[in-house]
Design a protein that fits this description.
Layout lengths: L1 H19 L26 H4 L1 H89 L1
Helix pairs in contact: 1-3
Length: 141
């Protein structure tokens, strides 16, 4: 925002500096497209509209208008992009929620499987523990 303020401040300083010197710029120095009367200067009978000072002001106003139009276009493009990002963001949030639910489900299944394995292991050792230990001792020796 400060760069926009600085730009406008520079333009205003240029306008004031050109308007302080009465014959700083002649009408001949401007291309024909800059010599048209802008909507902002509707008093055609006014002497300021016809001299070079007003032409500088008009060209600066036109430059500012083009700059403002460009900014408005960029803002509208950014709004479209933001709307797309919001939509993508909501889709991603939904996917994350789905994955979190699936993660909880898989974690619960893993815990249940671990409990079943522990249960089966304890049953196996309670029924066949002595035989298993004897077998291990025989293999080691």
């Amino acid at each position: 925002m400060s760069s926009a303020k600085n730009f406008i401040l520079v333009i205003l300083v240029l306008i004031l500096s050109f308007s302080s010197s009465s014959n700083a710029i002649e009408k001949k120095s401007f291309p024909p497209d800059f010599t048209r009367i802008s909507r902002q200067f509707t008093n055609v009978g006014d002497e300021r509209v016809v001299n070079g000072e007003s032409m500088v002001a008009m060209s600066l106003v036109e430059a500012l208008q083009k700059w403002a139009d460009t900014l408005e276009e960029q803002i509208s493009l950014m709004r479209v992009e933001i709307a797309g990002l919001k939509t993508s963001n909501s889709h991603l949030k939904d996917k994350v929620m789905t994955m979190e639910k699936e993660n909880v489900r898989v974690t619960e299944e893993l815990l249940m499987s671990t409990k079943k394995l522990d249960s089966l292991t304890s049953k196996f050792f309670s029924l066949h523990g002595l035989k298993f230990l004897k077998l291990v001792k025989l293999l080691i020796l």
